[in-house]
Amino acid sequence: MTPLEQENEEHWLSVSDLMAGLMMVFLLIAIIFMIHAERERRTVTDVALLYERLRLELYNDLLNEFEDDLEEWGAELDEDLTFRFSREDLLFDRGETDLQPQFQNILSDFFPRYVRIIHQPQYRDDISEVRIEGHTSSAWGERSEDEAYILNMALSQERTREAASFLLDLSELDDVKPWVKANLTANGLSSSRLVLTEEGEEDEARSRRVEFRVVTDADQRIEAILQTAR
Fold first, then answer.
1. CB-CB contact of 179 with 98 (8 Å)
2. pLDDT at residue 153 in the model
3. Of 94, 77, 112, 107, nearest to 152 (Cα)?
4. What is the residue-wise DSSP string for 107-150?
5. Are 23 and 16 in contact, with CB atoms under 8 Å apart?
6. Which residues partner with 131 through β-bridges?
7. How far apart are CA 196 and CA 203, in angstroms?
8. Are 134 and 195 in contact (CB under 8 A)?
9. Torsion over CA of 158, 159, 160 and 164, rounded to 10 degrees?
């Protein structure tokens, strides 16, 4: 082998060694990334499972507390923690914002018991919001669809504000009022979430309703974990 041939062979060997070294570095980076991604996935899964267990436990506690009252109140409790009042004749007069006396009596009984459950130590730190949601049908006399939506938005918002004001005046909440005020929100949603019949038509009576919804901070916790991991 001539000196030139030997020099060329050594050159290609060094290039080959360099490429092999780079491949090892890239492989190591890929393995680290895969381990990191798997840890992140497991952490998010653990958080999701934790909040699913919390939701089930809270649902069972609420159901045990209110099961005997639901029919009388015209209420329902969904597994997504939505507590729905939909007996139109008990809530508000058509187009009005004042709570019916019957609904005031129901809320006076319901809400202190409701808060007593969700304010328990195993739940309260994971609750980010307690929403009062007002819902209407899409109807408003002879108004156009858009006009009816805006008018119903104002109506539903004022109704939830009336409900929130009434609840905050309840003396049974005095001990927990700071927590309630920090978490309670009033949300008028107009006809944006209509209740439909089995045929897919609007159920006007059931669309006119008031809902209490517990929102956990699961999404915020997961997002915080992902931000920390980046």
1. no
2. 95
3. 94
4. HHHHHHHHHHHHTSHHHHTTEEEEEEEEE--S-BTB--HHHHHH
5. no
6. 185, 213
7. 5
8. no
9. 100
The tally of CA atoms less than 13 A away on the side-chain side of residue 25 is 6
Picking from 59, 70, 76, 73, the residue whose alpha carbon sits closest to that of residue 195 is 76
Residue length of the chain: 230
Q: Give the count of beta carbons closer than 10 Å to the beta carbon of residue 111.
A: 23
| Coil vs helix vs strand at 177 | helix
> Which residue segments constitute the domains of the chain, with CATH numbers given?
45-224 (3.30.1330.60)
Cross-strand bridge partners of residue 202? 196
Within 10 angstroms of residue 154's Cβ, the number of other Cβ atoms is: 12
**Mean predicted lDDT score pLDDT of the chain:** 84
Identify the helix (H) or strand (E) that includes residue 12.
Answer: helix 3-66
pTM, 2 dp: 0.75
